[in-house]
Amino acid sequence: MILRWLLFETRVGALLLAVLERKAGLAVVSAEGLGAQVVGMSKTQEGEQ
User: Fold this and answer.
1) Model confidence over 4-48: pLDDT tens digits?
2) Degrees, nearest 5: CA angle 13-20-8
3) Is residue 1 situated within a structural domain?
4) Distances (CA, A) of 24 to 18, 27, 38, 48
5) What domain range includes position 7?
6) Labelling 5: which of 18, 22, 41, 46 has CA 20 to 30 A away?
């Protein structure tokens, strides 16, 4: 709980996450909207093949 608060709700945590993303290739993804996304190829990709 404290670690989540530190990483996601403070400037120090945001800076740490940005450094990890840049240097180590790690990224934090918000999973809230992932369930609503459509899976599959987009219309433009289908037309190119």
Assistant:
1) 888 888 999 889 888 888 888 877 766 666 667 667 766 665 555
2) 25
3) yes
4) 10, 9, 29, 34
5) 1-26
6) 22
